[in-house]
Structure formats: structure tokens, C-alpha cells
Specification:
206 residues, alpha/beta, 10-stranded mixed beta sheet, 5 helices, globular
């Protein structure tokens, strides 16, 4: 049975954030709000938790394309190879925001991602997600909560999410209704930005 807690995005309660972080540190899976759709996440350093998410998604961990949710760009070099000024300016302009950027992975990636040549970096414009990552002290690995209904595609109601995921995860955050548009995915691993998926987020910033 997953815990279900309400956190207000305008002013997240530090005690509630601490509760979420404790679950993550114990290897728990958490469903949380972002500036786009609700995400399923775990501590990037916990291999067992990562394997649980991969099983839920029906993929092998080394083949999974999960995003890294970061608090800001300050520890980017832990996960990404050195980037040029042009790339950094794009990240600075777009983040925090509803974008996932694919960047070349560094040699210091956590063990589960050692074979990854590229990683997806996300800094969502959502205080709940940012406070969780900041309090945890490292990124969370994340994947979107999809819906079997092809018309709806993404579930937006936290109560319905809790009902559906109750036996699969350890905690669901009610951060209000989510969006049903996923992030825009942009590949910055090559010479020119490549739009992989157009979602929420203007393309005019590029």
C-alpha cells in the first residue's frame, strides 16, 4: 500500500519533503508532480530501486531511457561530459522548464548507467520536484506515468494515480492536477540541436 501525501507546489512543506526523501533513501519508488506529467522516480544511486522501475516499465535496466531529474546545473559534470558554451547557454535559457535534454554521458555515471553513451537531463519548473532532489542530495531517475488509454495518454488526477499504482510504488504525492503534455525532448549530443519529441515547451528558445 502506497502512502498518499498532499504537498502544495507554491510552498512545499519541509516535513513532507523529508518524508519523501526518506522513502527514496530506503530504495522506495515515488510518484511525484513535475511541470509536465506525473513522474515515477527513485534514487539514482539505488540499483535495486532502478531495477524495480525497469521491471514495471517492462524494459531491461541497461536499455532503459530514464531521465535524470536535477535540482540545477551545478553538478552536471557528474553525469555529462564537458559541454561547450553554446550548449550550456541553451540549457541555461531553457531550465528550469518543460524540457528533457539528451547529452553525452560522462565516465562517472552511477554503475547501472555505465554503458550509457547519452543521458536525458531534466530540471523541471516545479518546487516539489526541485525540493525533493535538493534534499536528497543527488538526482532522481524518472520516467513518465503513461495511461493505457491512447486518447488520455497521461493520467492527471493524483487520486486516480494512487488508486492505480497503490501496489506498485511506495509513495504517491498529490501535488494537484498534472499536465497531460510530456516534456519536449531535444538531443544536444550532436553539433546541432535535434527535436526528438515535441511536447510542452516552446521551440522558439532554440
Amino acid at each position: 500500500m502506497a502512502d498518499f501525501i498532499r504537498i502544495y507546489e507554491e510552498n512545499p512543506n519541509p516535513k513532507a519533503i523529508k518524508q519523501v526523501v526518506e522513502v527514496l533513501k530506503k530504495g522506495g519508488l515515488v510518484i511525484y508532480p513535475t511541470d509536465t506529467v506525473y513522474g515515477l522516480g527513485c534514487d539514482i544511486t539505488n540499483t535495486k530501486a532502478l531495477e524495480r522501475i525497469a521491471r514495471i516499465k517492462g524494459v531491461k535496466l541497461d536499455k532503459a531511457n530514464f531521465s535524470f531529474i536535477c535540482h540545477d546545473l551545478s553538478n552536471l559534470s557528474d553525469y555529462v561530459k564537458q559541454i561547450d558554451t553554446k550548449t550550456f547557454k541553451i540549457l541555461k535559457r531553457a531550465l528550469p522548464g518543460p524540457y528533457t535534454f539528451i547529452l553525452p554521458g560522462s565516465k562517472t555515471l552511477p554503475a547501472a548507467f555505465k554503458k550509457k553513451k547519452e543521458v536525458g537531463i531534466r530540471v523541471p519548473n516545479n518546487n516539489i520536484a526541485l525540493d525533493i532532489v535538493k534534499a536528497l542530495g543527488n538526482p532522481i531517475v524518472s520516467t513518465s506515468i503513461r495511461d493505457e488509454d491512447e486518447i488520455i495518454e497521461y493520467t492527471t488526477d493524483p487520486e486516480l494515480i494512487h488508486e492505480k499504482w497503490d501496489n506498485l510504488v511506495d509513495l504517491v504525492i498529490d501535488g494537484g492536477y498534472g499536465d497531460n503534455h510530456a516534456s519536449t525532448v531535444i538531443d544536444l549530443s550532436q553539433d546541432e540541436p535535434l527535436i526528438v519529441r515535441e511536447g510542452k515547451g516552446s521551440l522558439e528558445i532554440f
